Amino acid sequence: MGRKWNNIKEKKASKDANTSRIYAKFGLEIYVAARKGEPDPEANRALKVVLERAKTYNVPKAIIDRALDKAKGSSDEIYEELRYEGFGPNGAMIIVDALTNNVNRTAPDVRSAFNKNGGNMGVSGSVAYMFDATAVIGLEGKSMDEVMEVLLEADVDIRDIVEEDEMVMVYADPDQFHAVQEAFKQVGISEFAVAELTMLAQNNVTLSEEGQVLFDKLIDALEDLEDVQQVYHNVE
């Protein structure tokens, strides 16, 4: 699963050049999650997941508090969660998750990004079946044996565990996200280098140099869209 972690690592590394954009996306995601239920992470599982993820990206407390205060207030903004699927150069598969208060704006924007950068949108289900929703937890400063011992003691179900880049990566079903974290918190481990709910491709593809350049432009164009929260793909 090494390449899967690399895809996540590359996304995290890119945040240094796009900090304000990533913080804005987290602010919106926190607001929407808080509006779905209580603006209290202990009573709202979806909100707790977003806040755990935001922590690994060092989202400032001021942005988190602003989003929570907005959710507690009288704001009547309604956002819809949308998923688009499509293809990039050489049949690369792409999933685009969006949060929008204007569906009539989002769909044309996503389609335009695909069309202008060598890709095309597919119908619902044309790509997603080749990806698995996955919880990914990464720990630094721990050995494989230490991590496995904690998970076995807590009797937590996981898919895989690997050691890469001086980090131990735990892959599990999405509904085990909190269980995995709680297992570590019970033994005093509360800091995670990675805490993601993501879509991992079942099979990855390698593009030609020319195809990779075009693909990178497509991904950048999609991630730059105001309504797009996450972009997943199967390119090495």
Automatic annotation (TrEMBL):
Residues 79-235 form the TACO1/YebC-like second and third domain. Transmembrane segments: none annotated. Residues 3-73 form the TACO1/YebC-like N-terminal domain. GO terms for cellular component: cytosol. GO terms for biological process: regulation of DNA-templated transcription. InterPro entries: Integrase-like_N, TACO1_YebC-like_2nd/3rd_dom, TACO1_YebC_N, Transcrip_reg_TACO1-like, Transcrip_reg_TACO1-like_dom3, Transcrip_reg_TACO1_YeeN, YebC-like. The keyword Phosphoprotein does not apply. One of its GO terms (molecular function) is DNA binding. Keywords: Cytoplasm, DNA-binding, Transcription, Transcription regulation. The keyword Transcription applies. It is found in: Cytoplasm. Its main location: cytoplasm. Belongs to the TACO1 family. YeeN subfamily. This is Probable transcriptional regulatory protein GQF01_33290. It comes from Paenibacillus silvestris.
